[in-house]
Amino acid sequence: MQSEMPKTASAKEMAQILGISKSALDKMRCVSPENSPPFFKMGRRVIYPLTGQNSYAAWIAERVQGGRAAHD
Question: CA-CA distance, 49 to 24, in Å (whole number)?
Fold first, then answer.
């Protein structure tokens, strides 16, 4: 049985999802990668997984406490 490939986003798409500029996302990834959405590199290209264990969805879930966003 072949497993399904996780859905991914480019840096530009992830910045749009987060509502920040691509340069802010790039800076977040370089300055504080532990606080950045999970990513991997393919050559020079940065890819953000949207599904799976190490994904944007899991990253967001870690930041939600008791069903409310941590900053609420």
Answer: 18
Residue 32 CA: distances (Å) to CA of 4, 6, 27, 28, 35:
30, 24, 8, 5, 6
In a domain, 41, yes or no: yes
State the amino acid at position 29 in one-letter form. R
The three-class DSSP label of residue 48 is: strand
User: Is 62 a member of any domain?
Assistant: yes
How many distinct structural domains can be found in the chain?
1
Residue 1 lies in a domain: no
CA geometry: angle 16, 22, 25, nearest 5 deg:
95
For every one of its 72 residues, what pLDDT tens digit does the chain have, with 9 covering 90 and above?
Answer: 555 666 899 999 999 999 999 999 999 999 999 889 999 999 999 999 998 888 988 888 888 864 555 454
Domain hosting 24: range is: 8-66
